[in-house]
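Write out a sequence, fold above all:
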Amino acid sequence: TENKYLWLSDKEGTIHCFDKLKEEYIPIEWGEGITPDIIYQYSSTGNFLYAIMTDGLNMLNVKSEGKMIKLDKKNLVPNKRLNKVLHAQGQTLYLTDNDNQLIIFNTQNGKAETIDCQAWGFPFNQITNIYFHNHHLFFCGEFEGIYCYNLQEKTLQQIKISNNLADYKHTSISSICYLKDNRFAISNKRFI
């Protein structure tokens, strides 16, 4: 958030806050109705963490209070069978539900647009991650590789993975991140 904090999850799913300027971890005071074990997926933008929790999509306001971080919760979208996939980009959130529908949520006006990913031609049984870069949505799928949807041209294409990563095509890709010069880092449980 604000390029000051780095938010990390450990292998048990507990969220930690690291202050990049002070180079130290900061204790988190969880507000009412928040415990780290009910946060399934989160993404940060501005002074907020957006989290998919048992009660749906929530905005967690990040407040610095002395040597602690306090998180206060506001429910934005009640649980509509939301999946554990969320990406925040500016004032727009991209998330999916259990029926592989993409939900584009505007945090400014509270409006949501729902798109049936199957209508776009997705072969996915389950979308495992979403990443936004330069008017493109990148979707990682359960054993289906990576697809890119151009939001301006409304076109879908499968991303070709180089031959030296051929085994990667048949694994569950958990993350994708833009590096530079049209290069991306991808990861699964085995490697990056």
